[in-house]
Amino acid sequence: MDTEVSFPDGDAIIIASNVLFRVHKRVLAHHCPVLAANLDTSAESMGGLPVVRVTDTPHDIREFLRVAYGSSPPTRAPLAPFSVLAAWLRVGIKYKMQVLVDHAYVNLQSLFPATLSEWDERDGPESSHDFKDENAIEALNLFQQTGQFGMLQVAIYRCCQLDPDVVRNGTTRADGTPERLSRKNVEVIARAKERLKEYGARMIEESRERFKRSEYCSYWQFRSYYKFCSCQDVIKDLRDTKAHGREAWREGDPLDSRFLQYIDRSEDSRDYELRQDFACYMGACSNCMDEVRSEVGEMRARVWNELPAIVGVADVIDDWVCDN
What we know:
The chain is an alpha+beta fold. The chain is built from 18 helices and 6 strands. The protein has a domain at 196-316. Helices cover 53% and strands 7% of the residues. The strands form 2 sheets. It has a 4-stranded mixed beta sheet with strand order 2-1-4-3.
């Protein structure tokens, strides 16, 4: 008997694996008519109570019952762990509980977003939902099994960032249930990873050509006094560096945003009017850095816009949001 969501006065029993949940039919009828109907037609009983056996994990049934009995209302979804959202989506779709599906879907979208700007801001949702990198495997299986194709491409992208051994051998859910990818999915991820490496290498090559001093460079006026323009040195470093996130591009993570942060650190946002104020500063002006940011933004946007094709799911994505 489950020790968390079972009631001694319950008038029905749900069995998931070897775990019994003693519940009330009226509660099931209100929240999950499908399960309630299964109880009504069940030929099995235990202690005079109707029994329904389900193929769901005890964890998934437990999380549904917590919602049904009010201890874990769907409104807490913004703070619910990924494991709970995944359980809601699985049982919600299987048993036609649309409210549960809607709350799960909206919050899973914050982890597998449809826009590049949301992707860059995913740290907050990852923390709120206790999302771990390896959860991408469970997510990919979940989205395929439940037909949530709009989040497939980001789930595959996340899987591409995992250690190859994890991709091949799988992981476990929060309740210990093994979670493995099909051989086909492992192959999809391997191909996508190679394409992403190609895109990353292309971005590095293009940046060497496209990063240039702005024609509106604020510091160009000082070059006659100091024989240099700091923007030129900074841009040369940005073109040539192999670190600060660009190594991630090369390894198959062209959406890594650390290079943008490095650009921010390379900028001097002050406007110098006196050459003696400028003499010792080696940062780049905001005009030059804005143009470099724009170049990086265009390259990252191209990857994002082509992501469904890169990871091999363009045929099932109808409403992918392109980034301008």
